[in-house]
Write a structure and sequence with these properties.
Elements lengths: L1 H24 L22 E2 L6 E15 L12 E17 L2 E16 L7 H5 L3 E3 L9 E14 L2 E6 L24 E11 L2 E8 L34 E8 L5 E8 L8 E10 L2 E13 L3 E3 L13 E14 L8 E10 L2 H4 L11 E2 L9 E2 L3 E3 L6 E3 L1 E12 L4 E13 L2 H13 L14 H5 L6 E12 L5 E14 L4 E2 L11 H6 L6 E2 L1 E14 L1
Antiparallel strand pairs: 1-2, 2-3, 2-27, 3-4, 4-6, 5-6, 6-7, 7-8, 8-9, 9-12, 10-11, 11-14, 12-13, 13-15, 15-16, 16-21, 17-18, 19-20, 21-22, 22-23, 23-24, 24-27, 25-26
Length: 543
Amino acid sequence: MKLLKSSLLGSAAAFAAVGAAHAADLPVKKAVPIEYVRVCTAYGAGFFYIPGTDTCLRISGRARFEGGYMTSNSRGTGNGDTSGYQGRMRINLDARTQTAYGTLRAFTRLDAGARTGYSGVGQSGTQQRIGQAYPGLGNDSFGRDSQFVNVDKAFIQFAGLTAGRASSFFDFYAHDFEFAGASAGSDVASTNLLAYTAAFGNGLSATLSVEDPIYRRTPIFSPYSVGVTTNGGIGGVAVLAVTNQPTPVFITYNTRGLPTGYGYVDTIQRTRLPDFVGALRLDQAWGSAQLSAATHELNVGNESQASGQPIAPIAHARNTQGWAVQGGLKVNAPFIAPGDALYLQGAYGEGAQLYTGYSAFTGSYTQTTATLQGQKFNQFFSDATINPFTGQLQTSQSFTVVGSYLHYWTPEWRSAVFSSYGEQSFSQSARAAQGVASSLANIGGSLAVGAPGTRFYNLSEALRNTYQIVAGASLIWSPVKDLDIGVEGYYTQIGVKNGRVIDKDKSPTAYSNVAGINAGTFVPRTVTQDSVPSVRLRVQRDF
């Protein structure tokens, strides 16, 4: 037995020795070294090196729920919704590389969401008009349901150059302390631009920016509403597919010099020149200050003759330059509480309403709209009118002022108060000329100005000078870092600066009875202002 065990152990040892000898002759395959993600500290927290490169990347984002309530004056077609809800997402990618010329940066941001309910929370005509939102077409969803996707940011920064889709360099406050962004003030979230910023030291910089004019256009006034809706015109907000927007101009006169015939000018604007924006900015420990200015071209299309009218030339100015200026001040107030800050801002523009932000609450990219459900009258936002006698573009004027203060009661509790006032006006000659054209062309509806001197002309809402007041406050609780649970309430009032207008809520058939109004056989209800309170609840997590 001992002999057998010794033999087996000896054989095993021999086999092991032979195996070891053969293994020593085989090539050894080395494991590929693992490249671990490294933290990048050059640009702040959250950055890491993309493996295999010297580029640092930060991934961040946001998830948000929001619900809102706004009173409704009417349960008529398209009205009656008092609540609205939305869920939103955001993804940010921030890539930076250090070069001999400084930091090379690329930043992208994608926003998306789903919204239902009343206008302002449930769906957005403003976003539909610029192709960022897609309405539901169902019986109970059209005008009340919207999905949207927005490439909010996609820009490159290098050696003072900014190129791509970014915030306009004209903007300053941009509703920084607000949920709804209801106060009057310039806030174009994104535009396409090419800009150069020169830094002079001590926080002083100057920027010259060439920007896309499309996102700053308010339509030139036309007394016709031309277009088709995506659902055949049934209910809700009309999604217009307009290819021609005619405005009458006079082409024939009688022996007394009174107009007897008219043709049309197409007021849909063509893209010729970009907007030119300049900004001078100061950033220091106490806060920031900025002066900005912009030019904005207004232009119209060709002439056409009305049916049955003789051919005659229509002399008119096909383009003119609008402009706007703005001043803003931000003061940090850590002596009251850490994080406290005050914003003050004012803007004035001619033919550049979206640069002053007068339409921020009611809705942009349309010449007239109503956000208040069952609104008593509409505001008009046109950047210009065409004088039918001369064919010249006559610009409108607008201005806004806004103030907002953020206060931290504790590190977990903060609140903001904000208020704004704005006006938009049209010259008396511009409105009167449109009234003559409206009468000659027999234009009706709420876009009709009416014949000057008549009662309807005095009561019509078209091209009236209006004002807007917004005041609100919020309270936000942040129990943990990057989580906000808050509520915001605000009050909005719109009104005419002089005279009265027809109350479309109380006299809904008034615009179809112009003859009765002028003859005194029909007396419509009238108003000078309309107002609405709103409230929003928000739960938001940033990461």
